[in-house]
Design a protein that fits this description.
Elements: H1 3-17, E1 31-32, H2 38-43, E2 62-63, E3 70-73, E4 79-82
Parallel strand pairs: 1-4
Antiparallel strand pairs: 2-3, 3-4
The chain binds iron/sulfur cluster (SF4).
Iron/sulfur cluster binds next to loops.
Length: 95
Amino acid sequence: MNRRDFIKLSGASAGLVLIPVSNLAVAQAPVHVAVDDPQAKALGYVEQSPEAKSNCANCAQAKGDLAAEWVGCNLFPGKEVKGAGWCKVWSPRPV
Ligand code: SF4
């Protein structure tokens, strides 16, 4: 390592040290939408779909790993709904 590389590396390292730990993104498990959540109630969200072929996992608003037990939903940013769930907004995913 020559002097120039050492100075570059030192500068980069110094920058890393100055980032407060509290600013680092910490991966957290998404919150599951509760059926008694006011928005969920307004949308008629349930964790078990009353419709045989309609559920959150095949809804146009669903996102993320649609094969998982809990999936993301555009209507509940930062939260997850049950893949087997359903609400009044359900519409089929585009083919
Ligand atoms: S919009 Fe779709 S994915 Fe979101 S809760 Fe309703 S049915 Fe489930």
